[in-house]
Write a structure and sequence with these properties.
The chain contains 3 helices and 2 strands. The chain is mainly alpha-helical. A hairpin with a 2-residue loop joins strand 1 and strand 2.
Length: 80
C-alpha cells in the first residue's frame, strides 16, 4: 500500500519561513552612511552571515522533517 508522499511545497508555513529569512538576507534595513564596525567588519555583513547559517539550518530542517524521501532499496522492493 502506497503512502501519500509529503512535499514541503504544499505547506504555506514553510514558505513563510523562507520569505522571512530571505527578507533578513537583504541589508536594506540597515541605515545608510558609515557602517557600524565590529572588529573591523561591518555589522550588516555579520548579520547576513548569521542569517545565511539560519537559512542552511532551516533548509536542513525542512528536508529532514517535512520531506519524505524514499530509500532506493525500499522503492526497489516495492516494485518487485
Amino acid at each position: 500500500m502506497k503512502q501519500k508522499t509529503r512535499e514541503p511545497i504544499m505547506n504555506y508555513r514553510i514558505w513563510i519561513g523562507f520569505l522571512i529569512i530571505f527578507i533578513l538576507l537583504n541589508p536594506w534595513y540597515f541605515p545608510s552612511g558609515d557602517p557600524v564596525l565590529v572588529y573591523g567588519v561591518p555589522l550588516w555583513a555579520l548579520v547576513i552571515m548569521g542569517v545565511t547559517v539560519v537559512l542552511s539550518l532551516y533548509i536542513t530542517y525542512v528536508i529532514r522533517y517535512h520531506w519524505e524521501i524514499e530509500d532506493e532499496e525500499e522503492s526497489g522492493k516495492e516494485e518487485k
